[in-house]
């Protein structure tokens, strides 16, 4: 079979990637609206929301294996023609998410005050954050059920229904948030209740879809144990990301208010474009997993090459676009001359790294789709330990400012690029079969 025959039609790739982009963008957009609503309550509620929301995000982001891991396992089964078993993965991931979510909910009621107090030293902001967090984490089981739902639906190559469910949930939250905060008079706590309501709607839709297609099934500890093994590697990988990004924010803040503000502007743009590029990675996960489930390593490798080239091209376009906007876009975020003077020290790193990010995120999707989580874990942790973290803290000691921080990010991204290219070229990730049990003895399978 020729490589051309193995290429995925662009229309098919976009049919998976565009709805996935909608899902990825929906939550940040809702957070912006939530922030605007709460912001009119005053500085203390807004600071409480910022702190509580950060802690909520840290907790939920550590459990994204329920999405990515389930996609990898379900996609293989779907590609092997075992749709019922792919749905069963979704059932067990949902049970697992519900169980872990209940544990988080209970721990939050006990630990919220001590953790927030440790971070802030107490006071009005801490009190506001604790009140918001205790209510918001009631939604933890629903959030994790939804993550599992995204996972199995992506695995069976359905990214449209998740978009509908997320929009439905966020729509409920958008309506309730201003009503509960102001006319009802619940203030900051009203924001948390609106979040929980929206999360419940989305989770209910995912559960309903699963019950219709798979029926009611009991928990299967063997399947959940296998999911947790994959999840362990993805959690460690996420922890490496968190350590890097939190360190960068901390060093920027310690360097000075202007530096911190400039870093925040460029970092939020970086995060937004990462979501844009990640939509391509989600499509790659589904397609690669299905190809390997069909026992076609050749097709999976061809998809990996194709998606990587697309990622490179997409990254170049974004880099050129934001280079052209360098004199205009920063003014949309701030009119402070000191902050604007700092932004270029990060801006040109941000622009230059877009092609690298395009390839890195694409290959992340390829290897995640193959279930190659152990390699991703090790590569990410090594890149963080040898590149990003040393440069970040050295820049604080040496007074390098944003240039040092973003040099660290550059080393991190180039480290990831090198390790991912080596892995992709080796072909050892392309393990065929309905489940990933071992690595091939050669790259010619």
UniProtKB/TrEMBL annotation:
<feature type="transmembrane region" description="Helical">
    <location>
        <begin position="265"/>
        <end position="288"/>
    </location>
</feature>
<keyword id="KW-1133">Transmembrane helix</keyword>
<dbReference type="GO" id="GO:0042910">
    <property type="term" value="F:xenobiotic transmembrane transporter activity"/>
</dbReference>
<keyword id="KW-0812">Transmembrane</keyword>
<feature type="transmembrane region" description="Helical">
    <location>
        <begin position="234"/>
        <end position="253"/>
    </location>
</feature>
<feature type="transmembrane region" description="Helical">
    <location>
        <begin position="374"/>
        <end position="394"/>
    </location>
</feature>
<feature type="transmembrane region" description="Helical">
    <location>
        <begin position="309"/>
        <end position="333"/>
    </location>
</feature>
<feature type="transmembrane region" description="Helical">
    <location>
        <begin position="132"/>
        <end position="153"/>
    </location>
</feature>
<feature type="transmembrane region" description="Helical">
    <location>
        <begin position="192"/>
        <end position="213"/>
    </location>
</feature>
<feature type="transmembrane region" description="Helical">
    <location>
        <begin position="49"/>
        <end position="69"/>
    </location>
</feature>
<feature type="transmembrane region" description="Helical">
    <location>
        <begin position="165"/>
        <end position="186"/>
    </location>
</feature>
<dbReference type="InterPro" id="IPR002528">
    <property type="entry name" value="MATE_fam"/>
</dbReference>
<comment type="similarity">
    <text>Belongs to the multi antimicrobial extrusion (MATE) (TC 2.A.66.1) family.</text>
</comment>
<keyword id="KW-0472">Membrane</keyword>
<feature type="transmembrane region" description="Helical">
    <location>
        <begin position="345"/>
        <end position="367"/>
    </location>
</feature>
<dbReference type="InterPro" id="IPR044644">
    <property type="entry name" value="DinF-like"/>
</dbReference>
<protein>
    <submittedName>
        <fullName>MATE family efflux transporter</fullName>
    </submittedName>
</protein>
<dbReference type="Pfam" id="PF01554">
    <property type="entry name" value="MatE"/>
</dbReference>
<feature type="transmembrane region" description="Helical">
    <location>
        <begin position="90"/>
        <end position="112"/>
    </location>
</feature>
<feature type="transmembrane region" description="Helical">
    <location>
        <begin position="400"/>
        <end position="422"/>
    </location>
</feature>
<dbReference type="GO" id="GO:0005886">
    <property type="term" value="C:plasma membrane"/>
</dbReference>
<dbReference type="GO" id="GO:0015297">
    <property type="term" value="F:antiporter activity"/>
</dbReference>
């Amino acid at each position: 079979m020729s490589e051309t025959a193995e290429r995925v039609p662009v229309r098919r790739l976009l049919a998976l990637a565009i709805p996935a982009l909608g899902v990825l963008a929906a939550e940040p957009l809702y957070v912006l609206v939530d922030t605007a609503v709460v912001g009119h309550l005053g500085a203390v509620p807004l600071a409480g929301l910022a702190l509580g929301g950060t802690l909520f995000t840290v907790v939920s982001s550590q459990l994204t294996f329920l999405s990515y891991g389930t996609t990898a396992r379900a996609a293989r089964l779907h590609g092997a023609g075992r749709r019922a078993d792919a749905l069963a993965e979704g059932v067990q991931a949902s049970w697992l998410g519900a169980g872990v979510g209940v544990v988080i909910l209970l721990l939050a009621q006990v630990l919220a005050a001590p953790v927030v107090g440790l971070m802030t030293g107490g006071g009005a902001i801490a009190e506001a954050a604790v009140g918001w967090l205790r209510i918001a984490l009631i939604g933890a089981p629903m959030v994790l059920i939804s993550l599992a739902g995204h996972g199995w639906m992506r695995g069976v190559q359905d990214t449209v229904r998740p978009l509908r469910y997320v929009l439905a949930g966020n729509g409920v939250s958008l309506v309730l948030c201003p009503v509960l905060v102001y006319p009802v008079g619940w203030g900051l706590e009203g924001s948390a209740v609106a979040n929980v309501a929206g999360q419940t709607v989305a989770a209910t839709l995912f559960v309903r879809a699963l019950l219709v297609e798979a029926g009611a099934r009991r928990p299967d500890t063997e399947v959940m144990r296998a999911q947790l093994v994959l999840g362990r590697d993805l959690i460690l990988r996420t922890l490496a990301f968190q350590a890097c990004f939190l360190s960068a924010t901390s060093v920027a803040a310690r360097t000075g208010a202007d530096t911190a503000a400039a870093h925040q502007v460029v970092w939020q743009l970086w995060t937004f474009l990462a979501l844009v590029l990640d939509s391509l990675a989600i499509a790659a996960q589904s397609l690669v997993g299905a190809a390997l489930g069909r026992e076609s390593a050749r097709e999976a490798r061809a998809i990996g090459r194709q998606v990587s080239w697309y990622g490179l091209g997409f990254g170049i376009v974004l880099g050129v676009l934001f280079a052209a906007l360098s004199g205009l876009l920063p003014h949309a975020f701030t009119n402070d001359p000191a902050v604007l003077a700092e932004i270029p020290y990060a801006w040109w790193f941000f622009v230059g790294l877009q092609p690298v990010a395009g390839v890195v995120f694409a290959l992340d999707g390829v290897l995640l789709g193959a279930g190659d989580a152990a390699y991703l874990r090790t590569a990410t942790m090594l890149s963080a330990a040898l590149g990003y973290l040393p440069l970040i803290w050295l820049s604080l000691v040496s007074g390098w400012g944003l240039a040092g921080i973003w040099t660290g990010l550059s080393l991190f991204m180039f480290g990831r690029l090198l390790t991912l290219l080596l892995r992709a070229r080796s072909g050892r990730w392309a393990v065929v079969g309905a489940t990933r049990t071992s690595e091939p003895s050669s790259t010619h399978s």
